[in-house]
Amino acid sequence: MGLLTERVAIVTGASKGIGRVMSLLFAREGAKVICAARSDGLVNETVELIRAAGGEAVAIAADAGTEPGAKSIVDIGISTFGRVDTLVNNAGDGGPTKPIQDYTTEDWFYTVNSCLTRPTSARVSSCRR
After folding, report:
1. DSSP per-residue letters across 21-77
2. pLDDT tens profile 70-102
């Protein structure tokens, strides 16, 4: 029995890197995983890897940075697994590709909103059927 047996987790940014690794780790620990990313092909690869290892997962291509995208991610979790218990908020845009000392105030708020506030619009804490 894994640490996350019977838990249902959304992992955003699940198509590669940390998001893919987190999706695989959550599944290995028993979680059912909603793998979300903007890239359809790569997020489906993540789900294939989970299923090949005996885990349960579903893929969705959606932008967690928009309210409709975040809602569609939660909706597929609820329709597939009946609820959502956990959010790994890994999606985000790293912001402008320049040294931070060269950021304008607008650059800074873009980065903060992209990585912190936008993906939380799904209100995952109240996602039960």
Report:
1. HHHHHHHHTT-EEEEEES-HHHHHHHHHHHHHTT-EEEEEE--TTSHHHHHHHHHHH
2. 999 999 999 999 999 999 988 766 667 788 889
Q: pLDDT above 70 covers what percent of the chain?
A: 84
Give which of 75, 26, 73 is closest to 49, Cα–Cα. Answer: 26
Q: Classify 7 as helix, strand or coil.
A: coil
pTM here? Answer: 0.79
Nearest to 83 by CA among 6, 5, 1, 20: 6
Q: Using the predicted structure, report yes or no on whether residue 104 has a pLDDT greater than 80.
A: yes
Three-state secondary-structure class, residue 99 = coil
Q: Minimal CA–CA distance to 27: which of 39, 45, 9, 40?
A: 9
